[in-house]
Amino acid sequence: MKFYDCAIAPNPRRARIFLAEKGIEVPRIEIDILNGENLQPAFLAINPRGLLPTLELDDGTRFDEVMAICRYFEELYPWRPLLGRTPVERALVESLQRRAEFDGMIAGSEVFRNQHAGFAARSIPGGGDAAIPAIPALVERGRQTLVRFFDWLEERLSRDAYLVGDTLTMADITAFCAVDFVAWVDIHVPAGHAATQRWYAALGARPSAQA
Amino acid sequence: MKFYDCAIAPNPRRARIFLAEKGIEVPRIEIDILNGENLQPAFLAINPRGLLPTLELDDGTRFDEVMAICRYFEELYPWRPLLGRTPVERALVESLQRRAEFDGMIAGSEVFRNQHAGFAARSIPGGGDAAIPAIPALVERGRQTLVRFFDWLEERLSRDAYLVGDTLTMADITAFCAVDFVAWVDIHVPAGHAATQRWYAALGARPSAQA
């Protein structure tokens, strides 16, 4: 098995924290996205979308998408469940994970990619196709969405210790990675969001945060 | 149990086709998004995001997101699996379903919402927050992404009868709904994409296509 990874990228980090929390070790292959290695023919032969993370099984089967990779490992190694313990909890984790991804991770990506000179010709991750230019208006849309993201986090975390009840799940991992990612564009947990600050400090103190 | 639905909207339709394929009947409550019923206080009390579909369980638990709702039903009613039959197949369905959603459904939404006068002040689905104006440049980005979507469909469907092997899965359902949705903006399966045409006709002939 091979896990195509990129140490600095926020989406591979979601999967790495997931694996660290479950105590699963997978051989990693680092792809240097800063130098465009993910858009070179060698990696495009592995993943034509140029996206990380990508998992390769021993029989050669490959797939991308963080949640597909995490769900595969959750099924193979059901201990320490991070996608929920019951059907209802799994539905809530999926719904909230996705909200954290859309309103946090993807909104952050819109801010980052559309104001960063290095992505002026590539406003959508991945390659292999016509260049799609940056859209500066997405910076403001992303910023507004992130206000909503942080308000939602504070509201949920004022009720419970984690996003889905009393235990860490993938919803927290995605939200935590989104908070760290948007710090790249100097957006931070608002002052006064005490519940989110408490939650963020707790996740940051776990060994998995270094994954 | 209650399924908050909207007959004309493409995302609720994904869940309706999924339920029809599994033979599951759930009481439906129609929400009139054309007249903004999803953004009125009565529905925002049910789902503060104003999004459809939303599922409400008998104990009052509610969650949104098509995949969370479908996964919940797949667990409760495992017959006729539509999210994959093995861990690897489930990973592939999740990965490809998501690609169909991003490159098909969401790209189509970018084209539709950002050129439609009715959404000039709401470029992101749902409500309850500051208005986010339409971004006309997203129309062209969406159109380019849809070219990639249709090329990908043709490449996959030239190899196999369905997106994941020899049987219908949620990846097909999402892609099929995306194809019908983008017809609203007069984008269609390209002439000469024979495998996609064959697949589209086969899905359209199933009773579930009327759901």
Topology:
Two copies of one chain form a homodimer.
Chain A: E1 2-5, H1 10-22, E2 28-30, H2 41-44, E3 54-56, E4 62-64, H3 66-76, H4 87-115, H5 137-157, H6 170-182, H7 194-204
Parallel strand pairs in A: 1-2
Antiparallel strand pairs in A: 1-3, 3-4
Helix pairs in contact in A: 1-3, 1-6, 4-5, 4-6, 5-7
Could you characterize the architecture of this molecule?
- 2 copies of one chain form a homodimer.
- Chain A has 2 domains: 75 residues, Glutaredoxin (3-Layer(aba) Sandwich); 120 residues, Glutathione S-transferase Yfyf (Class Pi), Chain A, domain 2 (Up-down Bundle), CATH 1.20.1050.
- Chain A is an alpha+beta fold and 211 residues long.
- In chain A, 48% of the residues lie in helices and 6% in strands.
- The first copy, chain A, has a 4-stranded mixed sheet, with helices on one face.
- Chain A starts with a strand and ends in a 7-residue tail after the last helix.
- The interface between A and B is large, with 37 and 37 residues.
